[in-house]
Design a protein that fits this description.
It is built from 14 helices and 17 strands. A hairpin with a 2-residue loop joins strand 13 and strand 14. About 35% of the residues lie in helices and about 15% in strands. Strands 4-12-11-10-7-5-6 form a 7-stranded mixed β-sheet. A 4-stranded mixed β-sheet has the order 1-2-3-15. The chain has a 4-stranded antiparallel β-sheet with strand order 13-14-17-16. Bound molecules: pyridoxal-5'-phosphate. The site of pyridoxal-5'-phosphate (PLP) has 15 residues, from helix 6.
């Protein structure tokens, strides 16, 4: 992503972005236009060109842009002068969120957790999780996994594999030990055996960790999927070696994989869970760290943050829970569309040899892994010219990642996938079979 073209946007006005905005911006390089509005699965730019959005705020807009019910609730709340910013004070909006989160999400799943409102970004929730685990166990080391992504503040970045991010830290990133994620050593190797081995060996050189932090599907890391068995083995090792299990569900949670939490059907009970991205449901910044009550060892104010009380986000989050999660229709639809996505992506990938293109992922968190990052970025570039906003992930940016809103209709989903298919064929050449047409 670093060698992308300049940010030329519009020839007849001075390019304020080029002039004023830091070089650090990244997504803007892939999508060189000025967006004006959005609804559902579509973005519109200044020329009123319409784009189908398969990026959806990098997994933040699971319910699409400006969902009418969420928007209505928020507009009402603002119109009646509801609290906008509340530090961590009790507000009606927070009360409603906690009740809805308990009644709609936690209780029906028999999950007993307390909720910590952290600063509003994912990395804030991860920092809180790591800090809490270290304090609970009185140890500094944390196990994280190859290709894991947990945010770019220093603590979270120390648990993040990507060298592009790590190299920018400016100071040594410490307090973590990386272990091979599921599948890292190929099929048929259970990497948790290695983890167990080094933790059991007092001379392995790995300091006894306080916790492990893991994603069930590595979003930024290239859609690597942990199997349920691997996650269960990991949990067993956590118990055996007295470590907490932290599941970072910031990207894979909120329905993306076909259930509210990505691990629901794995038979595990994480000690700490982080949520953010689609939690507000509306693209508003909001993050929580939830954990088993026995680990609530914080002293008042020990960990804080000015923006822990984004009440507008509480309002839209509550509305999203009530609208999408009080019956099974939404999530059943997501599962169906996940299957459509799987079928279409494998159909595309099957036209090419495995070293050129492979479909991977789980639920509606899927993509196409290309031979290299150049190929993936050419596909993404073509897609944009055809009105499809889609991005790459993975260590070399080699995975074209479909993160479309979960609320897309099947027709919209197929529309996007056919654009993607045509871009793949333009970049890789026509594949060996044509059964898709
Ligand atoms: C995006 C992401 C983060 C970081 O969230 P920010 O809001 O960008 O700080 C952490 N963990 C995972 C799994 C993510 O996908």
């Amino acid at each position: 992503m670093s060698s992308k073209p300049a940010l030329a946007v519009n020839n007849d006005t001075p390019d304020i972005f080029e002039e004023m905005e830091s070089e650090v911006c990244s997504y803007a390089r892939s999508f060189p236009t000025v967006f004006t509005r959005a609804d559902g699965g579509y973005l519109y730019d200044q020329e009123d060109k319409k784009y189908l959005d398969f990026l959806a705020g990098a997994g933040t807009l699971n319910y699409g842009h400006n969902h009418p019910y969420l928007k209505g609730e928020l507009l009402d709340y603002i119109a009646r002068d509801g609290i906008a910013h509340g530090l961590d004070m009790h507000t009606e909006a927070k009360e409603a969120f906690l009740k809805a989160f308990d009644e709609i999400i936690l209780s029906p799943r028999k999950m007993n957790y307390v909720v910590q409102f952290t600063g509003p970004t994912g990395t804030n929730a991860v920092e809180a999780a790591l800090k809490l685990a270290r304090n609970v166990k009185g140890r500094h080391n944390i196990i994280s996994f190859t290709n894991g992504f947990h945010g770019v503040s220093v603590g979270a970045m120390a648990a993040t594999g990507n060298s592009h991010h790590r190299n920018a830290s400016g100071i040594p990133l410490t307090g973590t030990t990386f272990m091979p994620f599921d599948g890292y050593l190929g099929d048929g190797v259970d990497t948790t055996e290695y983890l167990d081995k080094v933790l059991s060996d007092p001379s392995s050189g790995v300091d006894h960790p306080a916790a492990v932090i893991v994603e069930t599907v590595q979003g930024e890391g290239g859609l690597n999927v942990a199997s349920a068995q691997w996650m269960r083995n990991l949990e067993k090792i956590c118990h055996k070696h007295d470590m907490l299990l932290i599941v970072d569900d910031i990207q894979a949670g909120c329905g993306r994989t076909g259930s509210f939490f990505s691990f629901e059907e794995m038979g595990i009970t994480p000690d700490i869970i982080t949520l953010s991205k689609s939690l507000s449901g509306f693209g508003l910044p909001f993050a929580v760290t939830i954990f088993k009550p026995e680990y609530d060892m914080w002293k008042p104010g020990e960990h804080n943050g000015t923006f822990r009380g984004n009440n507008h986000a509480f309002v839209t989050a509550t509305a999203a829970l009530k609208h999408f999660w009080t019956n099974d229709q939404f999530i059943n639809d997501v599962r169906c569309k996940g299957k459509v996505l799987e079928k279409m992506l494998s159909g595309i990938a099957d036209q090419y040899p495995d070293d050129m293109l492979v479909a991977k992922g789980r639920g509606m968190m899927r993509g196409l892994s290309c031979a290299d990052g150049k190929m993936a970025s050419r596909i993404v570039e073509k897609a944009f010219s055809k009105g499809l906003v889609i991005e790459t992930s993975g260590s070399e940016g080699q995975v074209v990642k479909c993160l479309c809103p979960l609320t897309l209709s099947e027709e919209e989903l197929l529309e996007g996938l056919f654009i993607l298919k045509s871009c793949v064929e333009e970049v890789l050449g026509k594949g060996k079979t044509r059964e898709m047409e």
